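Q: what sequence does this backbone want?
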């Protein structure tokens, strides 16, 4: 497969490949070297979505006749993350007395410490798709070399523990290193997939721990408000970034029936027009939404113009407060947000809503 590109915001960006594909390629290379008894510089693998990819084998060393370790460097393309340029190693040992293919993690690969994730507590954080791909590649190698035994594979990532500090792993209950991931095998620059997968994993983990109500906030402003003004433990809060609609979908998918949404008006005002991804690239409309609420609440033309020309929601609220229209307009906004959120969540979902301002505190 030739290196792919995607176009985002009028920029041509190079795609990369996942830690899972690196582990898959390193394991296959190790098995081929052991059974073929010759060094190889490249290895061809099928990425999970079905394409072929050729990877460079950068580092190889032997431990006697039955063990070899191979390394492949992670390349995230133009999506530079915490794992970009790390070496992903596979230590492969032949096991002639069994047909089993055993896969575990060593240095730099995290361990699962909380239930609800892809792997059980105590296991190496090597997800199901990379595990399956490693097994398939090694079964193919076994057949090609007419080998009847098994393999023991240990994935190693020097520097992985330090890199993991820049990820969500500790929040998810993965300690000691990075995760070996990849559902498609391809890293698409500026993709939302990784963030959404993290949100889903966090919600699934809370579900496994018995939580029946989700508390959802976009980010640090919401987290700080929750810690200061509510009794909700921080470990029960799911940060959804801009993906409010998608997080509601995931909650529905996993069978939750009650969610509490807590957020700054600067983001949540957009929900009043049904905008469920609050990133600015999907549109703004904050003042237009507040102006529509002002009209509906009976605001005069002068006030509506003041709101529409405001630079921030706090500035708009200041105009509303001076005109003694703050509560009426915010009440209209609250009704609109409830309408759109409830429509997205469905009839079985109970919605609680808290919207605040850093200047004016809780608004509703």
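A:
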């Amino acid at each position: 497969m030739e290196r792919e590109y995607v176009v985002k915001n009028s920029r041509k960006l190079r795609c990369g490949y996942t830690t899972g594909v690196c582990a898959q390629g390193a394991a296959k290379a190790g098995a081929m070297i052991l059974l073929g008894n010759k060094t190889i510089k490249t290895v061809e693998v099928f990425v999970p979505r079905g394409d072929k990819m050729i990877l460079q084998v950068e580092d190889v060393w032997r431990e006697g006749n039955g063990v070899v370790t191979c390394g492949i460097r992670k390349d995230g393309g133009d999506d530079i993350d915490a794992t970009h340029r790390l070496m992903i190693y596979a230590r492969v040992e032949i096991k002639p007395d069994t047909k089993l293919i055993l896969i575990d993690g060593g240095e730099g690969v995290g361990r699962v410490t909380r239930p609800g994730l892809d792997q059980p507590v105590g296991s190496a954080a090597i997800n199901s798709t990379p595990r399956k791909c490693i097994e398939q590649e090694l079964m193919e190698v076994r057949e090609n070399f007419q080998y009847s035994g098994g393999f023991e594979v240990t994935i190693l990532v020097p520097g992985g523990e330090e890199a993991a500090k820049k990820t969500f792993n500790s929040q998810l209950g993965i300690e000691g290193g990075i995760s070996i991931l990849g559902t498609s095998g391809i890293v698409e620059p500026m993709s939302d997939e990784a963030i959404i997968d993290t949100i889903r994993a966090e919600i699934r983990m809370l579900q496994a721990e018995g939580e029946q109500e989700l508390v959802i906030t976009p980010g640090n402003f919401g987290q700080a408000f929750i810690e200061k003004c509510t009794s909700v433990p921080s470990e029960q809060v799911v940060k959804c970034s801009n993906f409010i609609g998608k997080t509601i979908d995931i909650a529905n998918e996993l069978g939750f029936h009650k969610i509490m949404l807590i957020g700054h008006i600067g983001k949540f005002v957009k929900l009043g027009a049904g905008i469920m991804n609050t990133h600015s690239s999907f549109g703004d409309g904050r003042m237009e939404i507040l102006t529509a609420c002002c009209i509906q609440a009976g605001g005069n033309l002068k006030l509506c113009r003041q709101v529409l020309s405001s630079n921030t929601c706090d500035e708009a609220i200041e105009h509303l407060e001076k005109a003694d229209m703050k509560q009426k307009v915010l009440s209209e906004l609250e009704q609109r947000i409830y309408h759109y959120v409830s429509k997205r969540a469905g009839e079985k979902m109970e919605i609680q809503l808290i919207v605040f301002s850093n200047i004016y505190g809780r608004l509703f």
